[in-house]
Design goal:
670 residues; Phosphorylase Kinase, domain 1; 14 helices; 29% helix; alpha/beta; flat; disordered N terminus; Leucine-rich repeat, LRR (right-handed beta-alpha superhelix); binds 2-acetamido-2-deoxy-beta-D-glucopyranose
């Protein structure tokens, strides 16, 4: 088994699969073995690490070698009861190490300075030990680090500015230590996760970090500034009593004064508020007058649009599928005086049909059940209005169905907010999610500035969809009937991506229900029965997973000359030999994920089984996916199967962010 450096991605994958079998190779990383033995003999432990010194180090628990067994590339000893300091000149000698996990032990003392020699290190997990001392200075030289977790130790001192040297860092967890002083201005573009909560940090949070959530900074009593409450205005804080920890004071200021003072303060506040209100009122009046005049002037012209002018931002084409046909909505529904029925709390909206009709509308897309509009109400609220066509049920049935839908409450299911039924018009109102659909993000013009969906994000979306669908199936006992990428709406937090357009099938007659828009996702049996089932949802979900993995749309006619569908295309590629060419070329640039991709592929293939009975329940699929993620996150510690990544690279480099090693041959169809 030789490792010529420019291996094709196919060979790398093969290698990966063989690796598990061939782990016990004959060669031996002599120097690394000595270092490991030296480490384990000098470190007290609970005998859970039983390394047989006459066997190859590559067979030891927690140790992974490169394919040629000449170097140790990962060492994972989580929760094995290691006690005491990390002896110097042991682990620091494992120069090819990519992953080091010693988390959840009882290691104490400082991190040895020779860790600075682990220059290929990609992930370092030392959380939940008793380590102390300053932020380990040697770490700032480990420029390939992507995951650094020192949480839950006893580190102290200030956070060095040289953290910025770690330009590839994606997670930095420093919570639950005793770090003090201000947070340096950390400006690392790749940083996705930061946690410095529960330390003794003070001062204002640098602007570069203000987009992280509050919980990243919680528990530092003297931190202030976004996302925490603003810092007190810039004057020397008197720090009245040392007993009162200066919590980030609310804008009103520390009100620790006596009664007399309070009274006069209240008076002042009253006057100020009164004056402010008065001025606001005058300004408002002026604006109204101006607007009225403006409108009059416009009415003189050949007007493009009756009614109030919509806010200019409305016309932004954010989903890439608008064909701006405004006013269509209001034109038709006019004169209908029926009521809008809010369901399930209505999402806090308060508008009526009138408002909806006055809203400026823009076509978002035409789906199987009707046309969706983005409607911007006058007070600035934006909602999606779905106008159903060919509804085949009575008003009573419609209402019952809608009330039922309104009760469904799950963060991965787009909630129905309101509905409207009249003889000629049936409307549904949903939240508007500006981030667009999975379909537009995944297939929107590639290359041209479009944010790529990396593996983690695809996995998060897949899980979100699975959880939503699972809730629908198991808690609401409802068939979705229309699972497809354009019905997966994204939120900034991808874990909250939401399925839309569910359970509408029963409103329509069989003949009209599954239009050819869902073609690529439709289970074989549904083509005949036209009746979606729980199992046909699973099939569609499987197609969606394949779509995430391959980056191909299911109805892409390009998939072979006779236009075979996505599952069959994947089957045909995979049957011949396990090959990396099924995967999206965009994914091939992340080198650590093949094992996870193969596992997800297996789940997807199970979901698209031809026989409905051989498909898993969606909850089972979700469980298997969660296991993939957990394996990657806890056992492999968020590196995404690093056990496989590093060997595949022949020990020459590390880091997911590096440019693709082989030219991605994946997009060429066989
Ligand atoms: C250690 O490994 C050698 C060679 O593989 C084997 O003969 C021996 O039985 C092992 N010892 C223990 C305690 O497992
Ligand atoms: C790093 O390795 C070099 C070469 O083996 C060695 O001379 C040096 O002392 C090591 N650095 C530390 C901090 O131990
Ligand atoms: C960080 O990078 C700067 C510039 O590249 C360098 O001068 C400095 O020594 C580095 N700091 C550490 C701790 O490696
Ligand atoms: C943490 O470190 C401080 C000194 O920096 C020491 O006083 C304290 O006992 C340590 N706490 C633990 C739990 O080791
Ligand atoms: C932060 O705390 C240190 C002492 O730990 C103090 O010297 C410094 O002035 C404080 N900085 C701010 C901005 O409060
Ligand atoms: C940060 O860590 C704290 C304590 O472990 C946790 O409660 C919080 O959710 C974490 N925040 C983020 C953003 O990970």
């Amino acid at each position: 088994m030789t490792t010529s450096p420019p291996m094709s991605s196919r060979r790398r994958l093969l290698l990966l699969l063989l690796l598990a079998v061939l782990a016990a190779a004959s060669a031996e990383p002599v120097e690394d073995k000595a270092a490991l033995l030296s480490f384990i003999t000098q470190t007290r432990h609970l005998n859970r690490v039983q390394w047989n010194s006459s066997a190859s180090a590559c067979t030891w628990t927690g140790v992974t070698c490169d394919p040629s067994s000449t170097a140790v590339v990962s060492l994972r000893l989580p929760a094995v009861g290691l006690v005491g300091p990390i002896p110097p000149a042991t682990l620091g000698r494992l120069r090819s190490l990519r992953v080091l996990s010693l988390r959840s032990n009882a290691l104490s003392g400082p991190v040895p300075s020779d860790f600075s020699n682990l220059t290929l290190l990609y992930s370092l997990y030392l959380q939940n030990n008793l380590l102390s001392g300053p932020f380990p200075p040697g770490l700032a030289g480990l420029t390939r680090l992507s995951h650094l977790d020192l949480a839950g130790n006893n580190f102290s001192g200030s956070l060095p500015f040289s953290v910025n040297n770690l330009t590839r860092l994606s997670t930095l967890n420093l919570e639950r230590n005793s770090f003090s002083g201000p947070i340096p201005s950390i400006n690392i573009g790749t940083l996705k996760e930061l946690n410095v909560s529960y330390n003794n940090l003070n001062g204002s949070i640098p602007e570069t970090l203000s987009s992280f959530p509050q919980s990243s900074f919680a528990g530092n009593l003297q931190l202030c500034g976004a996302p925490l409450p603003p810092c007190p205005p810039f004057f020397p804080s008197p720090s009245p009593s040392p007993s009162a920890p200066t919590e980030p004071p609310p804008p009103a200021g520390p009100a620790s004064n006596k009664k007399k003072k309070k009274l006069s303060t209240a008076a002042i506040v009253g006057i100020v508020v009164g004056a402010f209100l008065l001025i606001s009122l005058i300004i408002l009046l002026c604006i109204c007058l101006l607007l009225a005049r403006e409108r009059k002037r416009k009415d003189g012209r050949p007007s493009t649009k009756p009614g109030p002018t919509p806010p200019p931002a409305v016309r932004s084409t954010d989903t890439g599928m608008t064909s701006s046909s405004k006013e269509e909505l209001s034109g038709v529904v006019e004169a209908e005086r029926n009521r809008l029925n809010f369901v399930g709390g209505g999402g806090g909206y308060s508008f009526d049909l009138e408002d909806l009709l006055r809203a400026s509308a823009e076509v978002l897309g035409k789906g199987s059940f009707g046309t969706s509009y983005k409607a911007v109400l006058e007070e600035g609220t934006t909602v999606v209005v779905k106008r159903l066509k060919d509804v085949a049920v009575s008003k009573r049935e419609f209402e019952v169905q809608m009330e039922e839908l309104g009760r469904i409450d799950h963060r991965n299911l787009l909630p129905l907010r309101a509905y409207y039924y009249s003889k000629d018009e049936k409307l549904l109102v949903f939240d508007y999610l500006p981030a667009g659909s999975l379909s537009s993000v995944l297939h929107g013009s590639r290359g041209s500035g479009r944010a790529q969906l990396d593996w983690d994000n695809r996995m998060r979306i897949a899980l979100a969809v699975g959880r939503g669908l699972s809730h629908l199936h198991n808690s609401a006992r409802t068939v979705h009937g229309n699972v497809k990428a354009s019905n997966v709406l994204l939120r900034p937090d991808l874990d909250s991506a939401a399925l839309s357009d569910y359970a509408l099938g029963p409103l329509f007659s069989f003949a009209s229900a599954p239009s050819n828009r869902t073609a690529g996702y439709r289970a074989p049996e549904v083509v005949e029965t036209r009746r979606p089932t729980l199992k046909s949802d699973v099939y569609s979900f499987g197609v969606l997973l394949l779509e995430l993995l391959t980056g191909k749309t299911p109805d892409q006619a390009l998939l072979g000359d006779e236009g075979i569908d996505l599952p069959r295309w994947v089957q045909s590629v995979v049957r011949e030999e396990w090959t990396a060419e099924v995967f999206d070329s965009e994914l091939m640039q992340y080198p650590n994920i093949e094992e996870e991709m193969v596992q997800l592929l297996q789940i997807a293939m199970a979901c698209v089984a031809t026989m409905p009975d051989s498909r898993p329940e969606v909850s089972e699929a979700v469980k298997m996916m969660e296991e993939i993620v957990n394996r990657a996150a806890s056992e492999s510690e968020g590196v995404g199967g690093a056990s496989s990544d590093d060997p595949s690279k022949g020990g020459t480099s590390g880091g997911r962010t590096r440019p693709p090693p082989p030219p991605p041959a994946a997009s060429s169809t066989p």
